[in-house]
Automatic annotation (TrEMBL):
Gene3D superfamilies: Rhodanese-like domain (3.40.250.10). SMART domains: RHOD. This is Protein HIGH ARSENIC CONTENT 1, mitochondrial-like isoform X2. The gene is LOC140003851. CDD domains: RHOD. Residues 23-123 form the Rhodanese domain.
Length: 130
């Protein structure tokens, strides 16, 4: 079931190569994965606002997602939205477009595809204490 846009606008999905180019041209990367996923590794300079939380009952939508995005971003900001594989980011991009974030696009393939292409990521420092 595809998410519906109220505005009639369509979610634009770009591949990781186009996303990388957009980020170099001034777009901001909005990572909608959970904090746990984000901490294991993420696109450099990414902003993390989870779209879903993992609970004992399963995945639950973050009820404050749009509120958190509005406090960190302006509606004019140019955003590339990504998740782990490209599913949650479609839903998040839909919500953003419906809330008048007109310059939001979805990164197809997500973080998995980004890593597969060997693009720069930030990972936690290895624990050096023995």
């Amino acid at each position: 079931m595809e998410p519906k846009l109220s505005s009639g606008a369509e979610v634009v999905t770009v591949d990781v190569h186009a996303a990388k180019d957009l980020l170099h041209s001034g777009y901001r990367y909005l990572d909608v994965r959970t904090e746990e996923e984000f901490e294991k590794g993420h696109v450099v300079d990414a902003l993390n606002i989870p779209y879903m939380f993992i609970t004992p009952e399963g995945k639950v939508k973050n009820p404050k997602f749009m509120e958190q995005v509005r406090s960190a971003c302006n509606k004019e900001d140019r955003l590339v939205v990504g998740c782990q594989s490209g599913v949650r980011s479609v839903y998040a991009t839909t919500d953003l477009l419906n809330a008048d974030f007109k310059n939001a696009c979805n990164m197809g393939g997500g973080y998995i595809e980004w890593v597969k292409n060997g693009f720069a990521v930030k990972k936690p420092e290895p624990d050096t204490e023995l």
